[in-house]
């Protein structure tokens, strides 16, 4: 029985280091290759030794697909391709291909240059890795080899994020990566057609959340920022350079303009301008409104938002600072946080999800005293606000996507086990017939598939059959059609039996039966024939029964003749003759006549 | 399978393919050469044009002074210019299911087809094709609407009168089908029917046919199309290019194994080498500027202009043109320049890699930034304040009949210092210039047409090996002006099938097979038997289900459960269902083994009689005859039904079922 196997190496009942192995139709695919922000040791990367103990992965994988540029989805890529060893194709969209190496380089710098780790991938390795990348366009069907094809769909979430459909023959898997079902200020909503995959592998970050409307959240956010700035406080918004940052910038930019505010807004890293430039060049990946107006006004050219310099953090007076990274686990955002944490006038707004182990996560769980490196503790006095701006689908969105794609099975990844449990129940309740899985890392889920067998049917046979069915076939009375399946090499052809004989150069063997049935019937031959005719006509409803002028009766293609016996004129002999093809009817007729005619 | 040809213009095609149950329109080209018969539409009042004499026939019998004007020996229609849209009478346009667009030049007739015809289908195009196509349509509408002309001349179209007219107007064909330009509302409505597609995207049409756009290398988002079912493949090749310009290279290999290849959109100037023309363009431009003259480049707002600007970007400094202003004037100039920068996915590799840096893919961004290139929506407003001479002006329309170019022709035409350089190949430059004669300005003809030439197409066809080629009749003979150049035509074996406007071609196609799916339960129940080495057969009895043009075979319904014994007696009297004919048989029944088998089943008294064709077996105890022949067996058995059934089964053991 054909089956599909799915094994998460990361993101199984967890958020971070997304990496999912899929075996389908004899092909092995790796979906995402991410790192875990919560760890600084081996657990940072997926455990590739699961695939093979000794060495390179090239011969075990047919392709690698990266859904988007977030490091928890691509952070382990250079390690996997250059240090473990993989030379096959890596697929990602153009924006991902453009932005991913920048974030990888950033990640490398923080890890190696700042933390002083060795045995990490180098800049050259990032470059070599990117050379193996094949860009993917939306909706383009990419033929990885003769059998394996992949197709990308728009996922929202961040610039260039994609969902992918993986297909071998009639079996298919859809992997969503991270997605967003509601359009935001800069991106559109995820969309997929009714592709009915065998499995839909969906993220479930917000499995239990049903978020209130985006507008409310935006209003809330602006109100909080505004209030803090009004009372002279400083607002820190930890973000990742690309993604949410642009959405929030658009939001603040328009708000500042409308309210004519003067407090400065800064964006911390040197990446900003570059990042915004990517958005300008990949404007076709943003939402409809931005795309429509970009010639008149490019939304990614900000008037109020300026570049940040380290020294500004100590400036007096209110300000708003966007700083990276988003989970306060390192870098500039953490530095600024340390400076501002002691003042209750200030505020930090966490606009996205924080992985366990990060400062961001500790803050959100309400810790007021943070242990920092070097055994110092930091007292948190500033206000901590959480605003779910990260563009993940919520429970409603996930259900909506399931309704869109109509999968046979659903698998949840990229979420917390408890929340998944809840969503799993909900999915199985709402969609009868859909099984839902939530494997842990290293746990394999096997899903049997039941592919139908494609066959070439001769058009003559198909048309003949369609003609029998009439314009509106009766669903209650299905007609059985007959054909001969010719199997030669790998081709399967279904033709009419006659054509099969001809094609295979076989002679037809006629098998005929003749049967004489004696009847006691004291009438003339012609009268007996009429009686036979009437009898058959009344019994065989739905059959063609004909009384022919040449003194025979025909039932379909079976001929009946009547003659008198030489000895006894009252004994009549009915001669029946039929071919093997009419065996059922012929046999029935001879038995019927043997019982005699009704008076 | 049939092909209906609605346009006679080989590079602005409009064909309709009927394939399986679908009706597919391939491109929607608008023949605009008709505007050459009209007087130019000046933006500002032109005393010269308004003073042109009206036309009166030589004998004075026919006078159409109001409608027709004479200029330098030729006659022009003084009316809003009209276009020649695709034929509307050949088939009912409301029956068209989909329209496939190959590039933005080939969609200009869309509103004539999708509006006011009952069309309810979908148009498929790539995103650049849609966006730039929209700009070109917007520009056209703008050109027409900003110079309203009250007069609409129709008398000259009268056959009797047209016959008497001189020169090219007399030869104009189909003049009654000519139409005025559409409105912006119609453009918007037509374009709202477009569904976007990406290269290599497989689009299913009604489950019957799959269509796929492929990169054609000619312009941003330009595509060729594959129209195929599981067994038949039609390739539609329209405007394609093998030269390295800005678009993604042409996908040639996907065109392989076509049953029919429809070939349109070859180069219109087969004798000119685009690279050479580009060089000539630059040197003429530099020469004129150095001599203190102005250069006018009539062009479309998208396409070759990007390459011209890129070429100039490299050329400006070396030619010392750093201080010369370059103007690009069009209502859509800004949009066109901006849009060109955001379609990285559709560009050639080295432009694509620029975006990763991130830098704009086209260098005209830098020309604009450094103020070397300025763009304006029209000659009024800002432009008139900043206009400096000598300068270079890129503006439309290349027919010289409407748009800002008319103004510059009137302005610069009288001085021999100035030069007009024609780069677009769609219009004969002599015809375009005719209503401006006499002209002192220099005219240079550097047509740049990057589409396939005959040499390239011959190589391509050799490579992809289609069974049949269909093409416009113009490609099957040398151009009329160069009738000795037999290299400027398609020579193929078998010869291509030519078409012209209003042709209906039956395409040489025999469909034999269709894809059907056997449900796994049915597939499992089949019993294959090897009939010849390597060939197995299995008889299939199944129920056919067809939905959305997809066919599925399901196992036949299980026979109704055996009714309780009480009713059993009646069952015999029920005639068998009229559904199951038995399979055909093949093979022969060999005498000796058959006798042995009979013996085994207790039939021992068999008398064998030889006949010319075989044997007759007389089963004496049972009073039954079996006639065995090479291709038939006949069992004559009168009243013993169980015996007959046994004999039947024994015979069947030797035979194969099909």
Automatic annotation (TrEMBL), chain A:
Necessary cofactors: Zn(2+)
Alphabetical list of SUPFAM superfamilies matching this protein: Metallo-hydrolase/oxidoreductase
Keywords linked to the UniProt accession: Cytoplasm, Hydrolase, Metal-binding, Nucleus, Zinc
Chain coiled-coil ranges: none
Any one of the GO CC terms: nucleus
One of the protein's GO biological processes: snRNA processing
All residue ranges annotated as the Metallo-beta-lactamase domain in the record: 16-233
Keyword Calcium carried by entry: no
GO molecular function: hydrolase activity; metal ion binding; RNA endonuclease activity
Stored SMART domains: Beta-Casp, Lactamase_B
Beta-Casp domain location: 245-363
Predominant localisation class: cytoplasm
Pfam families, A to Z: Beta-Casp, IntS11_C, Lactamase_B_6, RMMBL
Subcellular location: Cytoplasm; Nucleus
PANTHER family: CLEAVAGE AND POLYADENYLATION SPECIFICITY FACTOR FAMILY MEMBER, INTEGRATOR COMPLEX SUBUNIT 11
Family recorded in the similarity comment: Belongs to the metallo-beta-lactamase superfamily. RNA-metabolizing metallo-beta-lactamase-like family. INTS11 subfamily.
Name of the protein: Integrator complex subunit 11
Source species taxonomy: Eukaryota, Metazoa, Chordata, Craniata, Vertebrata
UniProtKB/TrEMBL annotation, chain B:
Keyword Repeat included in the entry's annotation: no
SMART domains in the cross-refs: Beta-Casp
DNA-binding is among the record's keywords: no
UniProt cross-references to CDD domains, sorted A to Z: Int9-like_MBL-fold
Domain of life: Eukaryota
GO BP terms in the entry: negative regulation of transmembrane receptor protein serine/threonine kinase signaling pathway; regulation of cellular response to growth factor stimulus; RNA polymerase II transcription initiation surveillance; snRNA 3'-end processing
Region (Disordered): 550-575
Pfam family, one: Beta-Casp
Composition skew (Pro residues), residue ranges: 554-564
Coiled coil region boundaries: none
SUPFAM superfamilies on file: Metallo-hydrolase/oxidoreductase (SSF56281)
InterPro entries cross-referenced by the UniProt entry: Beta_Casp, Integrator_9su, IntS9-like_C, Metallo-B-lactamas, RibonucZ/Hydroxyglut_hydro
Subcellular location field: Cytoplasm; Nucleus
GO CC annotation terms, alphabetical: cytosol; INTAC complex; integrator complex
Keyword terms, alphabetized: Cytoplasm, Nucleus
Annotated ranges, domain Beta-Casp: 305-433
Membership in a protein family: Belongs to the metallo-beta-lactamase superfamily. RNA-metabolizing metallo-beta-lactamase-like family. INTS9 subfamily.
PANTHER family on file: INTEGRATOR COMPLEX SUBUNIT 9
Protein name from the UniProt record: Integrator complex subunit 9
Organism in which the protein naturally occurs: Scleropages formosus (Asian bonytongue)
């Amino acid at each position: 029985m054909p089956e599909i196997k799915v094994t998460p190496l990361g993101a199984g009942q967890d958020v971070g280091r997304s990496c999912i192995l899929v075996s389908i139709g004899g092909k092995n695919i790796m979906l995402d290759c991410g790192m875990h922000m919560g760890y600084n040791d081996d657990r940072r990367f997926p455990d590739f030794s699961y695939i093979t103990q000794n060495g390179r992965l090239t011969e075990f994988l047919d392709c690698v697909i990266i859904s988007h540029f977030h490091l928890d989805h691509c952070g382990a890529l250079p390690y996997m391709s250059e240090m473990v060893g993989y030379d096959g194709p890596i697929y990602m969209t153009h924006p991902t291909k453009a932005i991913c190496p920048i974030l990888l380089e950033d990640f490398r710098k923080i890890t190696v240059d700042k933390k002083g780790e060795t045995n990490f991938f180098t800049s050259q390795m990032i470059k070599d890795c990117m050379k193996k990348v094949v860009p993917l366009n939306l909706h383009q069907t990419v033929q990885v080899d003769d059998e394996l094809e992949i197709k990308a769909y728009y996922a929202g979430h961040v610039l260039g994020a994609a969902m992918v459909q993986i297909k071998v023959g009639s079996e298919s898997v859809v992997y969503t990566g991270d997605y967003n079902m509601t359009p935001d200020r800069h991106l559109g909503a995820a969309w997929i057609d009714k592709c009915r995959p065998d499995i839909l592998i969906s993220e479930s970050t917000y499995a239990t959340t049903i978020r209130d409307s985006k507008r409310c959240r935006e209003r809330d956010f602006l109100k909080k920022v505004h209030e803090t700035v009004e009372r002279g406080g400083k607002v820190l918004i930890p973000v990742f350079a690309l993604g949410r940052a642009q959405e929030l910038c658009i939001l603040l930019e328009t708000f500042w303009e409308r309210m004519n505010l003067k407090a400065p807004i800064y964006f911390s890293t040197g990446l900003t301008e570059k990042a915004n430039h990517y958005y300008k060049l990949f404007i076709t990946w943003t939402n409809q409104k931005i795309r429509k107006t970009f010639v008149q006004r490019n939304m990614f050219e900000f008037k109020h938002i300026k570049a940040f310099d380290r020294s500004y953090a100590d400036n007096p007076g209110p300000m708003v600072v966007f700083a990276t990274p988003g989970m306060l686990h390192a870098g500039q955002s953490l530095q600024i946080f340390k400076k501002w944490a002691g003042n209750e006038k200030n505020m930090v707004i966490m606009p996205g999800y924080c992985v366990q182990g990060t400062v961001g996560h500790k803050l959100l769980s309400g810790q007021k005293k943070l242990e920092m490196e070097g055994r110092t503790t930091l007292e948190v006095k500033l206000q901590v606000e959480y605003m779910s701006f990260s563009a993940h689908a919520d429970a409603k969105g996930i259900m909506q996507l399931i309704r869109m794609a109509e999968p046979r099975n659903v698998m949840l990844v990229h979420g917390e086990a408890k929340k998944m449990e809840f969503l799993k129940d909900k999915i199985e309740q709402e969609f009868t017939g859909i099984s839902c899985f939530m494997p842990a890392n290293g746990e394999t889920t096997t899903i049997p598939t039941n592919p139908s067998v494609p066959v070439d049917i001769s058009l003559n046979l198909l048309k003949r059959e369609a003609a029998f069915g009439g314009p509106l076939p009766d669903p209650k009375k299905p007609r059985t059609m007959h054909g001969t399946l010719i199997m030669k090499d790998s081709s399967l052809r279904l033709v009419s039996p006659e054509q099969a004989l001809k094609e295979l150069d076989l002679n037809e063997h006629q098998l005929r039966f003749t049967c004489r049935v004696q009847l006691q019937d004291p009438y003339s031959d012609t009268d007996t024939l009429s009686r036979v005719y009437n009898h058959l006509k009344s019994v065989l409803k739905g059959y063609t029964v004909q009384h022919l002028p040449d003194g025979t009766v025909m039932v379909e293609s079976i001929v009946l003749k009547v003659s008198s016996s030489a000895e006894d004129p009252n004994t009549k002999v009915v001669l029946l003759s039929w071919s093997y093809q009419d065996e059922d009817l012929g046999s029935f007729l001879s038995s019927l006549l043997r019982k005699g005619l009704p008076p | 399978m049939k092909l209906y040809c609605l346009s006679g213009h080989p590079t602005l095609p409009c064909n309709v393919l009927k394939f399986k149950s679908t009706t597919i329109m391939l491109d929607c080209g608008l023949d605009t050469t008709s505007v050459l018969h009209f007087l130019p539409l000046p933006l500002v009042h032109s005393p010269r044009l308004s003073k042109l004499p009206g036309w009166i026939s030589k004998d004075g019998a026919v006078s159409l002074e109001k409608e027709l004007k004479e200029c330098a020996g030729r006659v022009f229609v003084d009316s809003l210019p009209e276009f020649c849209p695709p034929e509307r009478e050949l088939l009912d346009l409301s029956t068209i299911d989909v329209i496939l667009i190959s590039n933005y030049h080939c969609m200009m007739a869309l509103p004539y087809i999708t509006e006011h015809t009952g069309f309810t289908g979908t148009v498929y195009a790539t995103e650049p094709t849609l966006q730039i196509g929209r700009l070109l349509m917007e520009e056209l509408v703008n050109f027409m609407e900003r110079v309203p002309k009250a007069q609409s001349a129709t008398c000259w179209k009268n056959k009797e009168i047209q016959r008497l007219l001189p020169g090219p107007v007399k030869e104009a064909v189909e003049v009654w089908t000519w139409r005025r330009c559409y409105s912006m509302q119609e453009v918007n409505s037509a374009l709202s029917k477009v569904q976007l597609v990406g290269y290599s995207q497989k689009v299913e049409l009604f489950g019957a046919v799959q269509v796929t756009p492929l990169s054609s290398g000619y312009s941003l988002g330009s595509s060729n199309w594959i129209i195929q079912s599981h067994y038949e493949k039609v390739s539609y090749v329209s405007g394609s290019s093998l030269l390295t310009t800005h678009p993604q290279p042409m996908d040639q290999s996907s065109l392989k194994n076509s049953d029919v290849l429809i070939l349109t959109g070859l180069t219109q100037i087969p004798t000119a080498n685009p690279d050479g023309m580009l060089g000539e363009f630059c040197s003429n431009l530099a020469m004129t500027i150095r001599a203190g003259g102005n250069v006018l480049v009539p062009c479309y707002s998208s396409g070759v202009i990007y390459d011209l600007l890129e070429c100039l970007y490299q050329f400006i400094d070396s030619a010392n043109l750093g201080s010369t202003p370059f103007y690009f004037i069009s209502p859509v100039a800004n949009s066109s320049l901006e849009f060109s920068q955001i379609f990285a996915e559709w560009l050639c590799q080295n432009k694509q890699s620029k975006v990763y840096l991130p830098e704009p893919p086209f260098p005209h961004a830098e020309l604009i930034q450094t103020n070397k290139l300025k763009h304006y929506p029209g000659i009024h407003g800002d432009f008139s304040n900043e206009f400096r001479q000598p300068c270079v002006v890129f503006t439309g329309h290349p027919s010289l009949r409407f748009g800002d170019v008319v103004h510059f022709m009137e302005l610069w035409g009288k001085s021999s210092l100035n030069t007009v350089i024609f780069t677009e190949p769609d219009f004969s430059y002599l015809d375009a210039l005719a209503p401006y004669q006499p002209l002192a300005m220099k005219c240079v003809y550097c047509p740049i047409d990057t589409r396939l030439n005959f040499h390239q197409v011959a190589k391509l066809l050799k490579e992809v090996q289609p069974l049949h080629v269909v093409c416009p009749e113009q490609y099957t003979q040398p151009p009329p002006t160069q009738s000795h150049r037999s290299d400027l035509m398609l020579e193929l074996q078998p010869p291509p099938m030519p078409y012209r406007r209003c042709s209906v071609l039956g395409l040489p196609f025999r469909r034999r097979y269709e894809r059907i799916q056997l449900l796994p339960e049915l597939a499992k129940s089949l019993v294959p038997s090897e009939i010849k080495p390597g060939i197995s057969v299995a008889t299939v009895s199944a129920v056919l289900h067809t939905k959305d043009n997809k066919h599925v075979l399901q196992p036949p319904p299980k026979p109704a459960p055996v009714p309780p014994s009480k009713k059993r007696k009646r069952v015999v009297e029920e005639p068998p269902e009229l559904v199951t004919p038995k399979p055909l048989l093949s093979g022969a029944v060999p005498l000796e083994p058959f006798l042995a088998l009979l013996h085994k089943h207790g039939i021992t008294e068999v008398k064998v009689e030889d006949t010319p064709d075989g044997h007759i077996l007389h089963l004496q105890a049972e009073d039954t005859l079996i006639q065995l022949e090479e291709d038939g067996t006949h069992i004559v058995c009168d009243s013993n039904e169980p015996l007959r059934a046994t004999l039947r089964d024994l015979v069947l053991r030797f035979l194969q079922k099909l």
